[in-house]
Amino acid sequence: MLNAQPIVPTLGLRVRPSALEAVVRPCPDSRCIETSPLFADIPRVDQAKILSSALSRKFTRRHTIFHAGDLNREVLLLTEGCVKITQLGESGSEIILRLNAPGELVGAVGELRQGAHSSTAEALVPCKAVVWNIAGFEALSERYPLLQRNTMRILARRLQELEGRFLEISTERVAPRLARELLRLLAHVGRKVDDVVEVHLSREELAQLTGTTLFTVSRLLSSWEQGGIVSLRLQAVSVKSPFGLLGLCGLK
Fold this sequence. Notes:
Order of helices and strands: EHHHEEEEEEEEHHHEEHHEEH
Shape: globular
CATH class of the largest domain: Mainly Beta
Strand content: 15-25%
Number of strands: 13
Radius of gyration: 19 Å
Number of domains: 2
Strand order of the largest sheet: 1-2-9-4-7
Helix content: 40-55%
Distance between the termini: 47 Å
């Protein structure tokens, strides 16, 4: 069962390798909320009022938060963990649309009332989120115009990301595309493990994210492992040399 309890808030692509360590550090719930794009420019006193109507919720690893076709009843802001958003193609093959990191809204934004989810959300690792019901969030958006503005900005940014990924899939070879995606993942959902940064995705999931085949991803990663750029586990890729990835995708 999911745990829900009232929140008592305590509010107080060009990847730069030097910034990687900072962005992959664990993020306390309150810090993720304060820096979330959802709360951009909103005073802390108003943030506290908005959060007072939300619940906190936990999701176990591999828990399906919602399925495609489910009614959209809630707005979720992830505060810990990583959630993948997927769709099924006509052939039944799965693609990953995006990965949600702490501080991000999970699922669709901009089409709140009486809509159905067009995608499925699954917790890749144990997750925490703050949750509003749709009616309550819409009422808050009317009361706090900056909240509505930020929601629309998030939607616009996601559309730009999808356009960029479509352009890469259409114009780039797989090797630089995969290297570029791994660099983005390091900064977005990477976790520091010992002296390396780990991306907690399987090779199949990386293939779904980059629009290629499991065989191609496995072949490339095996080659990069032999070159000392990455090390592989069953459900994760550890990046030993971000500069090596930069060289593979042409970034300086």
